[in-house]
């Protein structure tokens, strides 16, 4: 039977009203490409620098330290294109005191310094061996670490978007970007068939396996942590874990390359093994892009009244 | 060095026309461009505020889709989507074409011309077009679905054609199927503030509405009734008050109603004194029947039956309460789906809050104080039984004495003592002396109008008047029978009109099924449309005459005694404003009145036009119009204001000052106790009217239903309540939101944006339980199909705030197919398309209410 | 001193006049609704309640948007607490729009007006206040000089139910305390200056 009386409902206020969480619409593909390319570039540089530092796989590493900053620059350019008023981008550097709170400003400085230092390091191979060069590279590498973390922080500061609003996000982006960087390194290595042999590839397979597993663990914990923070976050996670994301982002982008690398590590001297490295690396790269796109596009805003 | 450019920066007072309410606005014009519209704080009509529609006036003014040059069609083929081949013509050609076509038809038979307007510009509609129709003698159409019956009921109860609760003093309001003061109604913008004040002061609101609309959203109690059952609910409330609680205002009923008059059991008519023809009442003090106004009466009987001339005659009130006996709360529960317990509780609260016997002193005068009201409007009007339903609702007020007293239901502006300096305009509702009944000043301009005299006037059927006003003595507002008659004149032996002059009107959209309305438009040989846009109906027009936008033109005086637009109440001073242009008209298009004045001149009826003006505005002396002079709209406004308010208040004064106001006094608001004229409780006069109608239709041999002419209200279910096929199980209905009306507002992009952001407006609401049972979900594209085979399509939104038997869409001329309205085109779901227009079964034969109650089956499209 | 606004939901009928009157005052382009009304319902039929919630910039005491702004275009004015955007400086990064929990910020990105590419004279007249490529938001009608002229913001002035009260925050707090008003999303720590009365 139909009966109704407002007085029988919570008399306090409409505070228990849910307004539907909605996906943020302000940041789209330009930002996704920025996060991806900046991470990829910094990851490539960082791994290449470590290899140079350790004097391993130096041929691809020399290319890597050069390609890294270029990719980061392209990424930064994407961010520039994303601006409503790109001609005013200089204000990122001319405004006093906003660096204290704005990750965009901090990021601009970090990216700029990184690109200058790493390009100097990458473009001047004769320097790399010197102490000065090593010091320069080291500082660039430290900035590369910051570049790896910065996009995650840019998103994570938004407490109106619970999916992002967690310190696990920068961690996830860090490992995922490193992963992509190494994958690109693998691809670069294919250009040096003479110096990069079976053993070297096997080494890279091991490194990939480790990083992939770490990334998977971080992703899993990220999802678990976020899910617990509230209903909007849980909804975001559900939105993120769409069938296509699971297939191409997780299965294709992480599990499949992991399986391939394990295979490559176990049986390193199969004929045409390089083909498998190419496939696995490309899968990691596309997986990294999908992860970031998914993350940006699943950013549900908290309902206004919760 | 050059001086900085001095901007021509002015605020011009004028009057809005984004709906018919005519709120006072002031328009910010900088260098000839309208840059803002605000409410005019000098006027009580809006008090310096505008509604969502009002703020968008400049979006219509500057709409590039507005057509501002006269055009004629070159493609003789008419139909929706068929390019009429419009070509621009000169004003000279437009006027001569219109005059030629109207003149030809007029010469053949004046009644072959149909004049039609819609509610949006009622000023020019009524005082331009309708006057033109009067002098030419044509027929007249006005598709007022929303107000059918209610205005004349208000005439009977509140001394004028519109009523509203006395929000300033009201403590409990029951609204039936309406969003008055929350989303709609005459004087919306003024009402909404008073209503909010009332809520803030703790006034209770109870809303009977199948959908949780703007009012139910604010209500303390929502009664989700089945559509069309409002009358049953009101009668159940009355049952509880009378038969269970014994709460009714005996003193009021005795003194201010005809409920004490005795009724002859055989004729159901008043028992009258043979000589004076005055009805008898029963004096308990000496147990004698006396004529009602016998000064020797000491204790008049309200209840009971008494022996008069050998017959046992009950009082009218006794018959009323006996008639209520079948409307038990259990009956109410069955028909309305509201639990009997709830009906009892609401009736009790209403009766107890009525404060029967209480008084209040306002401005030093003591009044009865009844701070309750039952109010209804558009929702209930949309049922064939609307007259009886609204009558039953009005009786709740009468029962507890909450009529024309503080706190209760009062007329918008039943009386006026006139502007203090001139004493004009001055009016007061008359008394129909034969039975001492309260009459009314009409709802538009304050003319005395006696519906009781209409009831007693013998009628003759007119075979060339599709409005049927000639056999509907209580209906002179709603010529709704025009629609079925123009479609098929045979059954009522009528003759079609050949030429249509439609002003600010989109006939195709504002009635029932759009295809049938298209068919109706095809029956005209020539159609002249005067409008701002080419709408759906323009696909059938032959000649298009543009009217200047309201920010570009003068109109006859809005507001003031034209109380149709502005609520009364003590807190509202009288306001006489001006509508004036704030920018020059695009392409020099003239205002509507000037168009009609020009046509009148060309048709040779200028003199009559001027005479009628003199009559309706009561122009005297040097301000009277000379029959042989061709006047402009501005001349007429100038004369009206000077005549009413003195030479100081001429056109120039109004152009500068915008509005003339003065305080309203208590005797202009509360009729009781200033008059002792009575309200009808037992409608003997309706029996008389029914008798006269029966005689006229019998003589003419016309099929005509007179069953509605009853002395007491009765509730009957809507036509489609009888639909028994279980597949057709849902009632679609439309409601009004605060920002959409008719066709024009749909084309306003800001308002379109609101509707697109609103979760409900353009979608079809369905109750979640119903949706679940049918396997439907939000976003589903569905088809609604009525039993008559008519279909509409729309997108579902699953909600909780709606009766499980109901589907709802916002009201408006949705789903327009006109390519000339690119913003409005295709938006929303036009559910009135489901209602058949042919035949008269959906029309009340008493008050012309159009029953829009249909049942549909809903399936995925 | 900070200004604050109190919105009485007992009075508000969700009529949307605050939305269009804001458009008339500022000429905001399509998609930009500085002032808007959210609608939601709670409960199950028949014990259901519908709510209209008028929204605008909350002019927070700790605004999330100011912290993330890289150019310094967004700031909270010390003299009156109004959160403003300097449209000559804003670079259009939309970090503020992301950070604002109330959805109060709108990037202006298209040259098109409400009727397409050709702007109406009204839109032309308002164009200077609506540059493309930067953020637009409610500024309590600071930009059109209403406060300077001693007039309350348009949505307050024009509210047909008189649901809105505007004034110094300390004064408004008395009303808020008396009527048990509340802020939206207080747990985010933004401390809005727009309060709602149940």
Describe the fold and architecture.
The complex is a heterotrimer of chains A (306), B (861) and C (198). Chain A is mainly alpha-helical. Helices cover 71% and strands 0% of the residues of chain A. Chain A has eleven helices and no strands. Chain B is α/β, with parallel strands linked by helices. Chain B contains 24 helices and 35 strands. Chain B has a seven-stranded mixed sheet with strand order 5-4-27-26-25-6-7, covered by helices on one side. In chain B, strands 30-34-31-33-32-35 form a six-stranded mixed sheet. With 198 residues, chain C is an alpha+beta fold. Helix content of chain C is 20%, strand content 23%. The two termini of chain C are 26 Å apart. Chains in contact: A-B, A-C, B-C. At the B-C interface, strand 3, helix 1, helix 5, helix 6 and helix 23 of B face helix 1, strand 2, strand 3 and helix 4 of C.
Short description, anyone?
Chain A has 11 helices and no strands. With 306 residues, chain A is mainly alpha-helical. The model of chain A is unreliable at 1-18 (pLDDT under 50).
**Strand order in space, largest sheet of chain C:** 8-1-9
DSSP E strands of chain A, number: 0
**Uncertain stretches of 5 or more adjacent residues of chain C:** none
Q: How many β strands of chain C by DSSP?
A: 9
What class, by secondary structure content of chain C? alpha+beta
Rg of chain C to the nearest angstrom? Answer: 17 Å
For the largest interface in this structure, which chains are involved and how many residues does each contribute? B-C, 62 and 48 residues
Helix content of chain A: over 70%
Give the N-to-C terminal Cα separation of chain A.
30 Å
Global Rg of chain A: 22 Å
Mean pLDDT of chain A: 87
Q: H/E series of chain C, N to C? A: EHEEHEEHEHEHEHE
Poorly predicted runs of 5 or more residues of chain A: 1-18
The average pLDDT of chain C is 94
Characterize the largest beta sheet of chain C: strand count, sense, and whether it forms a barrel: 3 strands, mixed
* Head-to-tail CA distance between termini of chain C: 26 Å
The major β-sheet of chain A equals: none
Proportion in β-strands of chain C: 15-25%
């Amino acid at each position: 039977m139909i009966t109704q009386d407002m007085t029988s409902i919570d008399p306090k206020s409409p505070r228990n009203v849910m307004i539907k969480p909605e996906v943020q619409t302000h940041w789209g593909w330009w930002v996704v490409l920025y996060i991806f390319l900046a991470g990829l570039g910094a990851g490539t540089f960082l791994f290449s620098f470590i290899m140079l530092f350790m004097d391993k796989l130096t041929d691809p590493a020399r290319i890597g330290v050069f390609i890294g900053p270029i990719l980061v620059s392209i990424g930064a350019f994407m961010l520039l294109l994303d601006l409503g008023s790109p001609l005013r981008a200089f204000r990122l550097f001319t405004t006093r005191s906003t660096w204290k709170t704005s990750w965009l400003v901090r990021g601009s400085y970090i990216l700029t310094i990184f690109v200058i230092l790493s390009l100097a390091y990458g473009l001047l191979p004769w320097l790399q061996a010197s102490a000065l060069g090593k010091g320069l590279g080291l500082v660039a590498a430290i900035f590369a670490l910051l570049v790896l973390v910065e996009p995650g922080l840019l998103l994570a500061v938004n407490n109106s978007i619970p999916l992002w609003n967690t310190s696990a996000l920068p961690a996830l982006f860090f490992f995922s970007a490193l992963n992509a960087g190494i994958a690109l390194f693998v691809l670069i290595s294919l250009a040096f068939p003479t110096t990069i042999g079976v053993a070297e590839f096997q080494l890279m397979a091991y490194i990939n396996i480790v990083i992939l597993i770490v990334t998977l663990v971080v992703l899993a914990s990220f999802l678990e942590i976020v899910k617990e923070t509230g209903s909007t976050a849980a909804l975001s996670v559900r939105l993120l874990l769409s069938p296509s994301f699971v297939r191409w982002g997780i299965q294709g982008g992480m599990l499949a390359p992991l399986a391939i690398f394990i295979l490559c590590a176990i049986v390193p001297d199969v004929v045409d093994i390089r083909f498998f490295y190419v496939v696995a690396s490309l899968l990691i790269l596309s997986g990294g892009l999908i992860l970031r796109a998914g993350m940006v596009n699943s950013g549900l805003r908290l309902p206004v009244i919760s | 060095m050059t001086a900085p450019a001095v901007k021509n920066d002015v605020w011009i007072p004028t009057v809005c026309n984004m709906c018919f309410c005519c709120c006072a606005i002031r328009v910010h014009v900088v260098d000839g461009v309208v840059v803002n519209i605000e409410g005019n704080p000098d006027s009580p009509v809006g008090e310096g505020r505008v509604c969502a529609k009002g703020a968008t006036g400049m979006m219509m003014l500057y709409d590039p889709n507005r057509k501002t040059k006269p055009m004629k069609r070159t493609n003789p083929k008419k139909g929706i989507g068929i390019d009429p081949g419009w070509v621009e013509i000169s004003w000279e050609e437009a006027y001569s074409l219109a005059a030629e076509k109207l003149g030809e038809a007029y010469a053949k038979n004046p009644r072959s011309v149909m004049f039609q307007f819609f509610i949006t510009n009622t000023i020019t509609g009524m005082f331009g077009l309708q006057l033109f129709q009067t002098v030419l003698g044509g027929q007249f159409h006005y598709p007022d679905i929303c107000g059918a019956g209610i205005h004349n009921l208000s005439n009977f109860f509140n001394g004028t054609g519109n009523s509203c609760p006395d929000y300033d003093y009201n403590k409990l309001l029951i609204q039936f199927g309406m969003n008055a003061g929350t989303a709609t109604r005459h004087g919306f913008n003024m009402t909404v503030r008073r209503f909010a004040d009332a809520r803030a002061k703790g006034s209770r609101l109870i809303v009977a509405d199948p959908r949780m609309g703007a009012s139910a959203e604010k209500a303390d109690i929502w009664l989700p009734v089945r559509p069309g059952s409002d009358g049953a609910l009101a009668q159940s409330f009355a049952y509880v008050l009378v038969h269970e609680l014994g709460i009714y205002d005996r003193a009021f009923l005795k003194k201010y109603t005809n409920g004490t008059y005795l009724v002859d059991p055989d004729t159901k008519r008043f028992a009258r004194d043979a000589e004076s023809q005055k009805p008898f009442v029963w004096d308990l003090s000496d147990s004698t029947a006396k004529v009602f106004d016998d000064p020797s009466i000491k204790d008049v009987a309200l209840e009971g039956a008494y022996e008069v001339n050998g017959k046992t005659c009950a009082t009218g009130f006794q018959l009323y309460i006996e008639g209520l006996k079948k409307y038990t709360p259990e009956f109410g529960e069955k028909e309305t789906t509201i639990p009997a317990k709830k009906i009892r509780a609401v009736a009790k609260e209403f009766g107890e809050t009525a404060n029967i016997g209480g008084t209040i002193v306002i401005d030093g005068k003591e009044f009865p104080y009844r701070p309750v009201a039952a109010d209804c409007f558009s929702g209930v009007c949309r049922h064939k039984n609307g007259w009886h339903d609204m009558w039953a609702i009005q009786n709740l007020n009468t029962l507890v004495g909450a009529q024309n007293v503080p706190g209760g239901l009062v007329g918008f502006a039943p009386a006026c003592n006139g502007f203090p300096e001139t004493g004009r305009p001055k009016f007061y509702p008359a008394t129909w002396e034969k039975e001492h009944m309260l009459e009314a000043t009409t709802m538009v301009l304050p003319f005395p109008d006696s519906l009781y005299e209409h009831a007693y006037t013998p009628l003759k059927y007119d075979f060339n008047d599709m409005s049927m006003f000639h056999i509907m003595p209580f209906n002179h507002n709603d010529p709704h029978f025009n629609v079925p008659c123009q479609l098929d004149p045979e059954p009522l032996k009528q003759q079609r009109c050949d030429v249509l002059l439609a002003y600010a009107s989109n006939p195709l959209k504002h009635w029932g099924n759009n295809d049938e309305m298209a068919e109706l438009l095809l029956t005209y040989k020539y159609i002249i449309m005067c409008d701002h846009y080419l709408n759906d109906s323009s696909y059938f027009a032959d000649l298009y005459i543009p009217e200047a936008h309201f920010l570009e033109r003068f109109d006859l005086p809005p507001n003031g005694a034209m109380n149709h637009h502005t609520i009364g109440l003590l807190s509202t001073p009288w306001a006489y404003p001006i509508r004036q242009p704030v920018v020059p008209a695009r392409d020099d298009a003239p205002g509507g009145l000037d168009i009609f004045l020009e046509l009148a001149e060309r048709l040779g009826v200028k003199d009559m036009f001027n005479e009628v003006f003199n009559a309706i505005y009561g122009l005297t002396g040097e301000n009277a119009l000379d029959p042989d002079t061709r006047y402009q709209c501005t001349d007429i406004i100038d004369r009206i204001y000077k005549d009413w308010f003195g030479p100081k208040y001429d056109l120039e004064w109004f152009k500068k000052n915008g509005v003339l106001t003065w305080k309203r006094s208590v005797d202009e608001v509360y009729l009781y106790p200033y008059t002792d004229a009575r309200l009808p409780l037992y409608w003997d006069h309706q029996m008389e009217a029914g008798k006269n109608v029966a005689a006229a239709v019998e003589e003419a041999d016309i099929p005509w239903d007179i069953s509605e002419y009853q002395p007491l209200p009765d509730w009957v279910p809507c036509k489609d309540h009888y639909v028994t096929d279980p597949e057709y199980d849902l009632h679609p209905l439309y409601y009004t939101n605060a920002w959409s009306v008719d066709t024009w507002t749909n084309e306003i992009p800001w308002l379109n944006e609101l509707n697109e952001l609103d979760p409900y407006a353009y979608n079809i609401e369905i109750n979640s339980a119903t949706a679940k049972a049918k396997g439907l979900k939000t976003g589903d594209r569905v088809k609604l199909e009525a039993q008559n085979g008519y279909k509409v399509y729309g997108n579902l939104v699953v909600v909780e705030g709606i009766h499980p038997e109901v589907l709802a869409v916002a009201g408006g001329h949705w789903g327009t197919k006109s390519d000339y309205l690119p913003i409005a085109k295709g938006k929303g779901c036009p559910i009135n398309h489901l209602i058949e227009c042919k035949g008269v079964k959906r029309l009340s034969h008493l008050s012309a209410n159009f029953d829009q109650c249909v049942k549909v089956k809903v399936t995925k499209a | 001193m900070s200004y604050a606004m109190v919105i009485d939901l007992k009075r508000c009928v969700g009529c949307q006049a605050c939305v269009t009157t804001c458009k008339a005052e500022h000429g905001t382009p399509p998609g930009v609704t500085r002032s808007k009304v959210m609608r939601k319902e709670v409960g199950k039929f028949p014990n259901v309640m519908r709510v209209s919630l008028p929204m605008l910039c909350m002019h927070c005491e700790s605004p999330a948007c100011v912290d993330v702004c890289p150019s310094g275009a967004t700031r909270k004015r010390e003299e009156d607490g109004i959160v403003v955007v300097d449209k000559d400086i804003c670079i259009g990064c939309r970090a503020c729009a992301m950070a604002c929990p109330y959805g109060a910020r709108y990037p202006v990105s298209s040259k098109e007006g409400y009727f397409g590419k050709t702007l109406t004279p009204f839109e032309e007249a308002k164009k200077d206040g609506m540059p493309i490529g930067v953020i637009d938001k409610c500024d309590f009608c600071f930009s059109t000089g209403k406060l300077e002229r001693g007039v309350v913001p348009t949505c307050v002035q024009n509210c047909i139910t008189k649901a809105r009260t505007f004034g110094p925050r300390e004064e408004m707090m008395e009303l808020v305390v008396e009527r048990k008003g509340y802020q939206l999303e207080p747990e985010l720590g933004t401390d809005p200056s727009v309060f709602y009365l149940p």
